[in-house]
Each structure stands twice: as structure tokens, then as C-alpha cells.
Amino acid sequence: MANIYIPYGSVEGQTARIVEYIADLVRAHGHEAETVDLKHSAAGSIPSGQDGVIVAASIHMGKHEGFVADFVRQNRAELERLPSALISVSLAAHGDEQNAEGYVEEFQEQTGWHPAHVGIFAGALLYTQYNFLKRQMMKKIVRDKGSTDLDTSRDYVYTEWDGVKRFTEDFLAGVPAASGQERA
To answer: The domain 3-123+159-179: what is its CATH number?
Structure first.
């Protein structure tokens, strides 16, 4: 059984939903998973006894959350010692892969951390949760990108859950404490 630590940053909640899905998958494979919302936690370091770490962050205004980057810089040595992964969640990952990859490259340059596993997943367009101004701004951005997802009375979830599942299972296969385990 492996202990997997999953610190994350989520502004609108889609990254948190992805992290909870990953934690459920980790547990379904017979391992322990601990998720920590870095924005609302005093956790400054990775707890001892972890066998792997998956850091997740969302993109807003072209950048990952600063507090997630700070966590990575502070824990870089431990992230390099343990099997670790980065998950980047953005709307750019839905149709603008080059831009989404650029965000990850920038994050790696800023933090100095170059994880062996990187997952880039599309987030969600949550019109019904936005205030009037943000809803109109997001609609304009989406329209300018050529999307037809302009009905502000509904939400659009772009996350490809099968891809998240494959990523998680691939990561678990590389965790030494997990590699000999029977998989569900």
C-alpha cells in the first residue's frame, strides 16, 4: 500500500473535483490518498511517510496559482526525491494544447521542478457560478476563441475523465510501494 499526497490549488472548483476523483481512484487501487487545498491549509511541507506526490493547479489569467508555485519551490527537494507529478487544469487544454503546454513550461521554469509525470487536463466553463461581469467576460473570451459554448444558462465541463484515470493509473504504476500491488 502506498501513501499518496495530493496538494492542490483550485479557484472555481474543477481542479478540486479532479483531485477528489484521483484520490478515489488511488483508494480504489488499495492505497491511501490525502488531499490538501493549499489555499485553505497551513500545510507548508509534504508530510513524512509519503510514497508519492501529485501536485495539482489550475490556470487563471494565464498563470498557475502563486501559492502552489510557492509550495513547489519550498518542497522541490522532496518532490525530486519521491515519485511526483504535476497536473495542470485549464480551459486552454480544451482545444489550445500548445498554450496549455506553455503554461506548464512556464511553471517549471518558475519553480525549477521538472516532474517526470505531467497531466494537462481541460477544466470547466462554469457560467452559472459566475457573477454577471465574469460571465460576460468569459463568454467574450470563449466567443473570441471560436467556441459555440455561449449559452450562459448552463455549465460546460471539458474534463476528460478517462484521461485522468489513465494518468493516475500510470502514476501509481511508477510508485515503488505500489508497483507490486494487485490493481483493481
So the answer is: 3.40.50.360
